[in-house]
Amino acid sequence: SLASTAITCFTRGLDLRKGTEDVLCPANCPLWQFYVFGDGVYASLSSICGAAIHRGVITNAGGAVRVQTLPGQENYPAVNANGIQSQVLSRWASSFSVTPATKDTALEAVGRSVSTARPSTGKRPKKTLDKKAGNKDCKADIAFLIDGSYNIGQRRFNLQKNFVGKVAVMLGIGTEGPHVGVVQASEHPKIEFHLKNFTAAKEVLFAIKELGFRGGNSNTGKALKHTAQKFFSLENGARKGIPKIIVVFLDGWPSDDLEEAGIVAREFGVNVFIVSVAKPTTEELGMVQDIGFVDKAVCRTNGFFSYQMPTWFGTTKYVKPLVQKLCSHEQMFCSKTCYNSINIAFLIDGSSSVGESNFRLMLDFVSNIAKAFEISDIGSKVAAVQFTYDQRTEFGFTDYTTKEKVLSAIRNIRYMSGGTATGDAISFTTRNVFGPVKDGPNKNFLIVLTDGQSYDDVRGPAAAAQKAGITVFSVGVAWAPLDDLKDMASEPREPHTFFTREFTGLEQMVPDIIRGICKDFLDSKQ
Fold it and tell me: Dihedral (C-alpha) 155, 161, 164, 170: value to the nearest 10 degrees?
């Protein structure tokens, strides 16, 4: 058998020299950065690891892949699979296919650490003797929302604690692994312990055994809302950039409504799973307020976030599949919120009718919007372009990756003064500012800020920007004609068009624009 070669996330098929080669893909490649062309047969221009994840040969945890060189072909199709969108290519000189490398090859290549080459099962790889660190492949901050209502009763409550304990142990809790806490839902929610209280499975297990049964109605909605809003604060131990997860255990059905709690959880960037046990039988359905309660609360109704167990008895076989779900961080769609997953470009009118002091008010407005978002290299990004007849990119999306630097760059923008060619400026921004990030994971927004009539056509360039996937908000001041503003704005035009007579009126619009961006973001994710 062949020994395997370790490669990077970006190694392409054409970088390999042999007809058949076994390679080892690293873990945690950024899915959105993969270039993959085709489906099953991939153009050799494609990333090998990207193709392997696309094909389902490995997950984002990496692993061993056998690459087979194939002749070139025409018309490589675009297919979305396993979180990767492959692209069309009309023809290429050579291709490759990917299949799982045989077990013994993987062993030979990575010796002791073979357990990390396969998708993480939540069990600790043998090589991490460092027990304190825990399972580093499982990135999650988890709240177990357990059922403490009269529905479940004392006997099954103890079985529930048993099950949660087994899940906690298999997750591989540790300083660098998953952290967990527990909230009990009954009449009123009670946070039993926080993420930061324990970093060892033994301690967590002990804390779970000590939990007392509270009883009362199963006000799961109330508990879910409370947990989404209060549990994941930094002072309670939530970690930046780690997916937030609530696993709701529900015996039977809730006494209250889950819809509002589900909305709040999604807005707070929390991934909600529902483990429903002993779901309502036909004769009980008359007592259930809302039969579709699971779909109201889960992060997505794609089946991934709901989990069913027939009873609390004999649940051991249900532990591992649940742990695998909780450790699949690339599936945690709800971690992305409007605050941490968008690109906003500001197109700022620098024409001579604005004047220096009003220009400063425009910059304050830009800062106040930018301030609301979580700007970082893995989060939201901001860019700014100033225009007259000419355009000047003040800074692009990748120039500054912290909020402080972005705000200071906005303060330092110098007023140009000149004419007004808004249409040209929109085309310039679409091409030069959004062009480089068009295949990235973030949703794109453009805020056009102008005080007057444009000398050129704005309708065509704005339509082209929208066609390129950019949502446009138009903000007009003073002499900006309403027709122009409406022509630039995205559909529905009303909520994307803003106007004020005075520059001092810009400040009042800030909350509405932020709300509008978040609404568009959520609508695009449904």
Answer: -110
CA distance 355 to 254: 60
Secondary structure of 440-509 in the HEC alphabet? CCCEEEEEEEECCCCCCCCHHHHHHHHHCCEEEEEEEECCCCHHHHHHHCCCCCHHHEEEECCHHHHHHH
Within a domain: 320: yes
Pair 518, 436 in one domain: yes
pLDDT at 198 over 80: yes
**How far separated are the first and last CA of the chain, in Å rounded?**
47
**CB-hemisphere CA count at 13 Å for 504?**
0
Determine contact, residues 444/469, Cβ cutoff 8 Å.
yes
Distance CA 511, CA 489 (A): 18
How far CA 485 is from CA of 175, 470, 495, 501, in Å, comes to 52, 16, 12, 14
DSSP structure class, residue 433: I
Side-chain-facing half-sphere of 214: CA atoms under 13 Å: 19
Contact call for residues 408 and 402 (beta carbons, < 8 A): no
Give the domain extent around 13: 5-100
Angle at 335 between CA 7 and CA 312, to 5 degrees: 100
| Sheet containing 89-100: order of strands | 5-6, 20-25, 63-76, 89-100, 41-43, 38-39
Asked if residue 308 and residue 162 are part of one domain, the reply reads: yes
pLDDT the model gives residue 130: 64
Residue range 287-314, pLDDT digits in tens = 887 888 999 999 988 889 999 999 999 8
Which residues contact residue 83 at a Cβ distance below 8 angstroms, ignoring those fewer than 6 apart?
31, 53, 60, 330, 331
Residue 117, pLDDT above cutoff 70: no
Q: What is the mean pLDDT of residues 107-118?
A: 34
Instruction: Return d(Cα 185, Cα 180) in angstroms, integer.
Output: 16
**List of residues 6+ apart from 402 with CB closer than 8 A:** 375, 376
- Give yes or no: residues 378 and 301 share one domain: no
- Tell me the average pLDDT across 187-197: 94
Give the model's pLDDT for residue 289: 79
Residue 271 lies in a domain: yes
Q: Provide the strand spans (E) within 222-368.
A: 244-251, 270-277, 306-309, 342-349
Residue that finishes a domain, picked among 77, 100, 123: 100
Segment 333-385, tens digit of pLDDT:
888 888 889 999 999 999 999 999 999 999 999 999 999 998 988 789 999 99
Query: What total number of domains does the chain contain?
Result: 3
Kind of pairing between the strands at 443-450 and 342-349: parallel
Cα 340 to Cα 244: distance, rounded to the nearest angstrom: 13
CATH code, domain with 456: 3.40.50.410
Co-location of 49 and 196 in the same domain: no
pTM: 0.59
